[in-house]
């Protein structure tokens, strides 16, 4: 179709940020880091290659995800441990913070709750920034590799993609069937994954993650959390994200409890203050 005469002018319109976040409550990072310094380890879980683990984090505690044997990306789901209806909302997190997360930014929960679930405390890949391709680390744009898309594109029956891994981990943790667990699995934080959008076609891309052994992403639990983490079958996602051929490694989750009184003055986030009337 022929472009209109004012096409260049239309394209040149200056963009505006949809959700300016200047008024977002700022996490008390100094308090969190001081509390973390004296925290003791109270638990751990290991996501085996092409599998997932589940874990619980009490409110006011910390958890760390570490690459322990080789470059590996992971898909993270979070729920309110006491109410699975409140879960991580990747779309709104993306709208508030951008396509990729780092220290000082938060994972927000689903409507109608819309409150911080976890705050990123430390990110050893924070130095990466945005590369020449537009790629960055820890995205909230990818949905997770799943068997349905795989079947749609290639007719495959693949059972160790992140969606299936998370479904099995949650079912095992809750002691329920796969059919009961699957509806709770949701869009993820792609931990350590390096992604972006192509400039010519706008397609979601991935490239080899810069993660190395010892790199980690650490969080503060703003509410009681149930988590599930999948060690993606794509390994470092340098070639494909659903594969039995890619080199894959485990991911370690560790949970830490601060000393009594270390969070003095901290207030837990309440559910969103909207009155719920919707104009009626």
Structure write-up:
The protein is α+β, with helices and mostly antiparallel strands. It has one domain (42-211, 225-257). It is built from six helices and 13 strands. The protein has helices spanning 7-11, 29-37, 90-97, 147-154, 162-174, 178-181; strands spanning 40-47, 52-57, 62-67, 74-80, 83-87, 106-108, 116-123, 136-139, 189-197, 204-207, 216-221, 225-231, 251-257. The strands form two sheets. Strands 2, 4, 5, 8, 9, 10 and 12 form a seven-stranded antiparallel sheet that branches. Strand 9 (189-197) and strand 10 form a beta hairpin. The protein is globular, with a radius of gyration of 20 Å. The mean pLDDT is 97.
Secondary-structure blueprint:
Elements lengths: L6 H5 L17 H9 L2 E8 L4 E6 L4 E6 L6 E7 L2 E5 L2 H8 L8 E3 L7 E8 L12 E4 L7 H8 L7 H13 L3 H4 L7 E9 L6 E4 L8 E6 L3 E7 L19 E7 L23
Antiparallel strand pairs: 1-13, 2-12, 3-11, 3-13, 4-5, 4-9, 4-12, 6-7, 7-11, 8-9, 9-10
The gist of it:
This protein is an alpha+beta fold and 280 residues long.
Question: Top keywords for this entry?
Answer:
280 residues, alpha+beta, 7-stranded antiparallel β-sheet, 6-stranded antiparallel β-sheet
Number of domains: 1
Seen as an oligomer or otherwise, the chain set is single chain
Round the mean pLDDT to the nearest integer and report it: 97
Described by the principal axes of the CA atoms, the overall outline is globular
Radius of gyration: 20 Å
Task: Report the strand count.
Answer: 13
Helix content: 10-25%
Sequence stretches where pLDDT stays below 50 over 5 or more residues: none
Q: What's the number of helices?
A: 6
Cα-to-Cα separation, first versus last residue: 45 Å
Taken as a percent bin, the fraction of beta residues is 25-35%
Biggest beta sheet attributes: 7 strands, antiparallel
Summarize the helix and strand pattern as letters. HHEEEEEHEEEHHHEEEEE
Instruction: Please state the structural category.
Output: alpha+beta
